[in-house]
């Protein structure tokens, strides 16, 4: 800090409540360093390795003249009100040159400058790095930034810069050109589709998606034929928990247009993939966009439904893939697709009749005979039978032969752990039914598969041409293991174990279970 210890102090807030952690602090620091990288050799500010007399004229730079001038010896110096009295004595490394009593007048003087932070006043390159970092942090990520000054524990001043202040207008305009505001950019009508993967990544980073949703809604209202606005808006609404409204907006998008090209930044793609999609939420279709993002495969989505007629012709493509997932709701659509594709005589990845044969209770029966596989029996039961079981636990052998409490219960059609619970006894089952109003459920025995260290481990394995490949290895103290909720990102030891697992998979796990994995692949029958 540039201020010596004393009765005055400052506190800086860069994260919201519950988000003050090492990850967010590192993200903030990395944004600053990225700003340095982006400014190098770009004519924004003098490169830091240039000698003072070698920086050239102000006209050579786009960012430099906004806050700086050239001094007598050719070095950059603050211009106008930016040259506040404390600026020459700012020193963040080494011994502080300012007293704690200087905190309040320094930040009051800073309010008259166009430096977004005090650190930006150190030099032109720090000015740009701070401006870039704080623009992304506050404007694009919608995270807080403010500085509070205290005297003996009492708040004296809160310094909270906002990019819409007139003093920042020129810098904001330059940064918007350099790094356009996403919500502003997508207000333009008929722009390309954003797509599920980029939007979900923003949700994962805990960005505030409300401004984006409003921008898309405004665009759809202003341009009722802009199908891209409707489909992207549907995705954002799903990510923000407005499922029913999202599905209504999605239906309007499908009415306007059935075919949607995913963003593709390359030249000629190595493969043109046409993906058949059905209506529904984010669990209703295989999320192929995540698997092929930034690849040399160009994706076009073709939405179909029970109500819409199948298209007479298809967009140009090299391979067709059916992404519609199995569920009770999709069975009619899968049957319709099977009849339609039988008439086309072309290679298909994931034939719809094969997808339709994969409900959980049928998969368990299909895999149960596989040597080396423990496949818990799964029963499909109407609600009334579970209600009866919750009052008469002696009925369990009739409903699920060989099973005992605890049990695993989930509604038909649920995915990603939604309303999936372990019930330890009939009383817990009754409480579960009181909270979940579904008409049908899957019921299975709970298998305690934790290792000696008390951790549950999940391997996600994908066969490609029959050969098994591991996608991830997750470790959790909870029996329901989802990679994002297992603390994998926060735990270096867990990631190290995963890395070791993946490095040794081909010669370890894959060898030990070669026969079982091959038979599972054969019995499932996809693609």
Shape: globular
Query: What is the CA–CA distance across the termini?
Result: 61 Å
Spatial strand arrangement across the major sheet? 6-8-7-9-10
Class from secondary-structure proportions: alpha+beta
* The number of domains: 4
Q: Give the % helix.
A: 25-40%
> Radius of gyration from the CA trace?
29 Å
Count the helices. How many? 19
Number of strands: 16
Portion of residues in beta strands equals 15-25%
- The low-confidence parts are none
Mean pLDDT: 90
The largest sheet, given as strand count, sense and whether it forms a barrel, is: 5 strands, mixed
Describe the structure.
This protein has 527 residues and is an alpha+beta fold. Helix content is 35%, strand content 16%. It contains 19 helices and 16 strands. It has a 5-stranded mixed β-sheet. Helix 1 packs across helix 3, helix 6 (196-204) packs parallel to helix 8 and helix 8 (227-239) runs antiparallel to helix 9 (243-256).
Short description:
The protein has helices spanning 22-39, 103-110, 124-140, 169-178, 182-185, 196-204, 210-222, 227-239, 243-256, 288-292, 331-342, 352-355, 360-367, 383-391, 396-399, 426-435, 492-504, 509-512, 514-524; strands at residues 8-13, 68-70, 76-78, 146-151, 154-159, 259-261, 271-277, 297-303, 319-322, 348-349, 379-382, 407-411, 421-423, 440-445, 456-464, 467-476. With 527 residues, the protein is of the alpha+beta class. 25% of the residues are buried.
Topology:
Layout: E1 8-13, H1 22-39, E2 68-70, E3 76-78, H2 103-110, H3 124-140, E4 146-151, E5 154-159, H4 169-178, H5 182-185, H6 196-204, H7 210-222, H8 227-239, H9 243-256, E6 259-261, E7 271-277, H10 288-292, E8 297-303, E9 319-322, H11 331-342, E10 348-349, H12 352-355, H13 360-367, E11 379-382, H14 383-391, H15 396-399, E12 407-411, E13 421-423, H16 426-435, E14 440-445, E15 456-464, E16 467-476, H17 492-504, H18 509-512, H19 514-524
Parallel strand pairs: 7-8, 7-9, 9-10
Antiparallel strand pairs: 1-4, 2-3, 4-5, 6-8, 11-14, 12-13, 12-14, 15-16
Helix pairs in contact: 1-3, 6-8, 7-8, 8-9, 14-16
């Amino acid at each position: 800090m540039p201020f010596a210890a004393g009765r005055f102090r400052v506190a800086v807030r860069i994260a919201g409540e519950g988000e003050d952690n090492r990850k967010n602090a590192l993200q903030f620091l990395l944004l600053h360093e990225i700003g340095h990288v982006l400014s190098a050799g770009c004519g924004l500010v003098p490169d830091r390795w240039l000698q003072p007399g070698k920086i050239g004229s102000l006209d050579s730079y786009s960012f430099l003249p906004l806050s700086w001038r050239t001094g007598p010896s050719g070095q950059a110096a603050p211009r106008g009100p930016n040259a506040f009295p404390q600026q020459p004595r700012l020193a963040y490394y080494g011994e502080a040159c300012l007293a704690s009593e200087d905190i309040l007048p320094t930040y009051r003087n800073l309010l008259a400058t166009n430096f977004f932070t005090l650190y930006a006043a150190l030099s032109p390159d720090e000015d740009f790095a701070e401006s870039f970092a704080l623009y992304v942090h506050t404007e694009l990520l919608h995270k807080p930034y403010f500085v509070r000054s205290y005297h003996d524990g009492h708040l004296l001043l809160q310094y909270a810069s906002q990019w819409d202040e007139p003093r920042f207008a020129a810098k904001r305009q330059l940064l918007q050109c350099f790094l356009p505001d996403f919500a502003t950019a997508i207000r333009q009508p008929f722009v390309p589709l954003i797509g599920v993967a980029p939007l979900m990544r923003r949700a994962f980073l805990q960005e505030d998606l409300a401004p984006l949703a409003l921008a898309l809604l405004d665009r759809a209202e202003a341009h009722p034929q802009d199908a891209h606005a409707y489909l992207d808006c549907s995705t954002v609404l799903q990510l923000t928990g407005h499922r029913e409204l999202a599905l209504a907006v999605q239906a309007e998008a499908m009415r306007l247009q059935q075919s949607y090209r995913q963003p593709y930044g390359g030249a000629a793609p190595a493969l043109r993939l046409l993906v058949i999609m059905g209506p529904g939420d984010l669990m209703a279709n295989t999320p192929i966009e995540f698997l092929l993002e930034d690849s040399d495969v160009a994706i076009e989505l073709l939405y179909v439904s029970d109500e819409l007629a199948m298209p007479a012709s298809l967009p140009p493509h090299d391979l067709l893939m059916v992404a519609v997932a199995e569920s009770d709701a999709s069975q009619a659509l899968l049957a319709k697709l099977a009849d339609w594709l039988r008439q086309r005589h072309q290679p298909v990845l994931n034939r719809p009749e094969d997808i339709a044969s994969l409900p959980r209770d049928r998969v368990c029966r299909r895999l149960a005979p596989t040597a080396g596989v423990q496949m818990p029996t799964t029963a499909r039961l109407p609600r009334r039978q579970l209600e009866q079981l919750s009052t008469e636990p002696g009925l369990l052998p009739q409903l699920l032969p060989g099973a005992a409490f605890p049990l695993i219960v989930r509604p038909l059609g649920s995915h990603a752990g939604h309303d999936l619970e372990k019930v330890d006894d009939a009383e817990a089952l009754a409480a579960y039914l009181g909270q979940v109003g579904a008409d049908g459920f899957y019921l299975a025995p709970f298998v305690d598969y934790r290792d000696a260290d008390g951790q549950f481990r999940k391997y996600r394995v994908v066969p490609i041409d029959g050969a098994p490949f591991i996608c991830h290895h997750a470790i959790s103290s909870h029996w329901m293991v989802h990679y994002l909720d297992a603390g994998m990102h926060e735990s270096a030891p867990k990631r190290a174990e995963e890395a070791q697992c993946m490095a040794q998979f081909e010669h370890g796990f894959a060898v030990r279970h070669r026969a079982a994995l091959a038979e599972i692949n054969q019995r499932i029958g996809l693609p």
